[in-house]
Amino acid sequence: AQKVTQAQTEISVVEKEDVTLDCVYETRDTTYYLFWYKQPPSGELVFLIRRNSFDEQNEISGRYSWNFQKSTSSFNFTITASQVVDSAVYFCALSEELTGGGNKLTFGTGTQLKVEL
Amino acid sequence: DGGITQSPKYLFRKEGQNVTLSCEQNLNHDAMYWYRQDPGQGLRLIYYSQIVNDFQKGDIAEGYSVSREKKESFPLTVTSAQKNPTAFYLCASSISLAPPYEQYFGPGTRLTVT
After folding, report:
1. Rounded to a whole number, what is the distance in angstroms from the first to the last CA of chain B?
2. Counting beta carbons within 10 angstroms of the beta carbon of residue A14, is it exposed (0 to 12), middle (13 to 18) or buried (19 or more)?
3. In Å, what is the CA distance from B41 to each residue of A4, A107, B62, B67, B87?
4. Residue B1 binned pLDDT confidence (cut-offs 50, 70, 90)
5. Where are the beta strands (DSSP E) in chain A?
6. Which residues are within 8 A (CB) of B30 and not within 5 positions of it... i.e. 6 or more apart?
7. Other Cβ atoms within 10 Å of A21 Cβ, number
8. How far is A16 from chain B (nearest CA, A)?
9. Rounded to an integer, what distance in angstroms lies between the CA atom of residue B4 and that of residue B23?
10. Contact assessment for residue B91 and residue B105, using Cβ atoms and an 8 Å cutoff
11. Which residue, among B57, B94, B103, would best test binding to A if mutated, counting the most A CBs under 10 Å from its CB?
12. Sequence-separated (6 or more) residues with CB below 8 Å from residue A6
């Protein structure tokens, strides 16, 4: 069965520190996609990135970077020079093929990131 | 501007009553989804729909029902059969179900049943 593990329940850092959020997944699909979402206190999930299983290149977007390693089934997310506005719950998700066609997402349990002054 | 709206933000109901949560999108997306989120847990899929007049059960469909009469709308009814209805409910949409495009989420409805 598909599974996404975010072992870090809560992380607290001081502003300007770098922080890495871990995500480990399990899948039997040969083609799959991985996602990261941010959930600020308002509750709405905000899409951050989608990655397919064929593309292991790391990606950087401003202060955000993602490290995808198929060999260890991990898709880690690093925030450089963290800011208070980064405080949120971050979810990693994995696509799963559906029997009747299409895909659905399996979410991890999330990591609560608190960035303090 | 385009997006997903859910109303109301907070909803209170007495046990034994059915309640319908609204979800509307103007992104012209084909696929829509309902998730439930409980404290400290990830999102769990309740129902999803690929096209109008078609929908499928997700992982925790018992006690819920949906309809998809219009492309823009995917309301969720929490029935009295749902044993533990108090939760945060999130609606999402994506261009289609396959390949797995990113899903865009609404602001959520926090349902409290007493």
Report:
1. 36
2. exposed
3. 12, 9, 19, 26, 11
4. low
5. 3-5, 10-14, 19-21, 24-26, 33-39, 46-52, 59-61, 64-69, 74-79, 88-97, 103-107, 111-116
6. B50, B51, B71, B94, B95, B96, B97
7. 22
8. 26
9. 7
10. yes
11. B103
12. A21, A22, A23, A90, A91, A92, A108, A109, A110, A111
SS3 A47: strand
pLDDT digits (tens, 9 = 90+) for A33-74: 999 999 999 899 999 999 989 888 888 889 999 999 999 999
- At position A24, the amino acid (one-letter code) is V
Residue B73's CB: how many other CB atoms inside 10 A? Answer: 14
Residues 52-91 of B with CB under 8 A from A: 56, 58, 88, 90
What is the rounded distance in angstroms from the CA atom of residue B70 to the CA atom of residue A48?
29
Element holding B37 (H helix, E strand):
strand B31-37
Nearest alpha-carbon partner for B106 in B13, B5, B2, B16: B5
User: What is the token pair recorded at A103?
Assistant: 């895909």
Contact B45, B60 (CB under 8 A): yes
Classified as helix, coil or strand, A17 is: coil
Instruction: Summarize pLDDT for B90-110 with one digit per residue, the tens.
Output: 999 998 767 778 889 999 999
Give percent of chain A with pLDDT exceeding 70.
98
A95 and B CB contact within 8 Å = yes
Nearest to B75 by CA among B24, B15, B11, B29: B24
